[in-house]
Amino acid sequence: QKEVEQNSGPLSVPEGAIASLNCTYSDRVSQSFFWYRQYSGKSPELIMSIYSNGDKEDGRFTAQLNKASQYVSLLIRDSQPSDSATYLCAVNNLNNAGNMLTFGGGTRLMVKP
Amino acid sequence: EADIYQTPRYLVIGTGKKITLECSQTMGHDKMYWYQQDPGMELHLIHYSYGVNSTEKGDLSSESTVSRIRTEHFPLTLESARPSHTSQYLCASSSRTGGGYTFGSGTRLTVV
């Protein structure tokens, strides 16, 4: 079992809809969770971080964390074609020296006009 | 502006050549990382460093080497490039206290 799992997609949503991206992780002691957006051919860009259970909102983005279920999600409201990208979930792995991040394989999101 | 820089952005070289991919950051971050990523595929950690004179191999076996003589500089060297080294190489850094990584723009390497 991979340490951080994401559905590879593609997840296709119509413009204006809510896109829901999910991520599960295996290490119960993980404490920091991040969402990155990566456009094709570009490098990952940090868009959200979340450290405690519940929701965290930033503009059209909402990160949700449930440590009991080992589950973190990213909601994108009013999805735009410019949101079409691969979204990477990353989890702080305290079992690794130096608190390294473990990345999921990413979910490809396609927003159709 | 604090940032992380990678050069070159694109590189096409012949088999057997020695190359160095440059990565520098101006954020004062202690930790730096090199990832390899093929198009549409996941990130693979190939090297990391927790500070000056500290380097470690990552999860993906790589024929490259790295050095960390200065905090801000973390170059990656391939002694003899092969077509199998064709990929995108991403450099990242993070602070000592953790938090998310900041990635450079990447170097797209093609070995012919």
Protein architecture, described:
The complex is a heterodimer of chains A (113) and B (112). The mean pLDDT of chain A is 93. In chain A, strands 2, 4, 5, 9, 10 and 11 form a six-stranded mixed β-sheet that branches. In chain A, 0% of the residues lie in helices and 54% in strands. In chain A, a hairpin with a 4-residue loop joins strand 7 and strand 8. Chain A is an all-beta fold. Chain B is built from no helices and eleven strands. Chain B is mainly beta and 112 residues long. The interface between A and B is medium-sized, with 24 and 21 residues.
Key attributes of the depicted protein:
heterodimer, A: 113 residues, mainly beta, six-stranded mixed sheet, five-stranded antiparallel sheet, 11 strands, 54% strand, B: 112 residues, seven-stranded mixed sheet, four-stranded antiparallel sheet
Short structural summary:
Chain A is mostly beta strands. Helices cover 0% and strands 54% of the residues of chain A. In chain B, 37% of the residues are buried.
Task: Tell me the series of helices and strands of chain A, N- to C-terminal.
Answer: EEEEEEEEEEE
Q: Please state the average pLDDT score of chain A.
A: 93
> Can you count the beta strands of chain A?
11
Helix content of chain A: under 10%
What proportion of the residues of chain A form beta strands (DSSP E)?
over 45%
Number of strands of chain B: 11
Strand count, sense and barrel status of the largest sheet of chain A are:
6 strands, mixed
Order of helices and strands of chain B: EEEEEEEEEEE
Oligomer: heterodimer
The greatest interface here is: A-B, 24 and 21 residues
Shape of chain B: globular
**Any idea what the radius of gyration of chain B is?**
13 Å
Helix and strand composition category of chain B: mainly beta
Helix content of chain B: under 10%
Poorly predicted runs of chain A are none
- Enumerate how many helices of chain B there are, as a single number: 0
Q: What is the residue-mean pLDDT of chain B, rounded to a whole number? A: 94
What gap, in angstroms, lies between the N and C termini of chain A?
Answer: 36 Å
